[in-house]
Design brief:
The protein is of the alpha/beta class and 175 residues long. Helices cover 43% and strands 15% of the residues.
Length: 175
């Protein structure tokens, strides 16, 4: 289920307050999810109404915080950690997204957004580091085609990175 199914693909979602809360209520309580083992909610960065409402409306097994390693992104990520802790949602760990780019022509690796920001914050805040997701064009291409990298390239380093993180999260929530 995606908010993208509720509006025209070219239309911005310019909802505030009550509209967001109504859509969230419908998503959580009116969608027929069937027998789920896990429901993953991919939320925008921040500590706003959406995050707070979700943490108050349903029992969460935990939150996974995803951030690039750069300081400006980590400021929002750390605020998210503080918010989830304040509402007693366990932090399952942090993921470092776009951690390294490897040139497909020369194989030189570059840490475009820094290299250890998320690892440093995990250490500072007593949070488990779940893994790195590289910056790679195939991840974007896979998403655009609607085929997650773990499906389209499960044996690739990127596919293994996603699977490794999923395994760690699964262990933490008892799967």
């Amino acid at each position: 289920m995606s908010m993208g199914f509720l509006v025209d693909e070219r239309a911005p979602v310019v909802w505030r307050g009550l509209m967001v809360m109504k859509a969230l209520q419908q998503l959580l309580h009116e969608v027929e999810w069937g027998g789920l083992d896990v429901l993953v909610l991919d939320l925008p960065p921040g500590t706003g109404d959406t995050q707070l409402t979700i943490s108050q409306q349903i029992k969460l097994d935990g939150a996974v915080i995803v951030s690039t390693p750069q300081d400006i992104a980590l400021k929002d990520a750390v605020k998210g950690v503080a918010m989830f802790r304040k509402v007693d949602v366990p932090i399952l760990g942090m993921v470092q997204n776009m951690s390294v780019f490897t040139c497909p022509n020369c194989n030189h690796s570059t840490h475009i957004f820094g290299s250890e920001g998320v690892v440093r914050e995990c250490s500072t805040h007593g949070i488990d580091f779940l893994g790195d997701i590289p910056l790679h064009a195939s991840i974007c291409d896979d998403a655009d085609r609607g085929r997650p990298t773990v499906v389209s390239e499960p044996g690739s380093a990127r596919g293994q990175a996603f699977l490794g993180i999923a395994d760690k999260v699964g262990d933490k929530i008892g799967l």
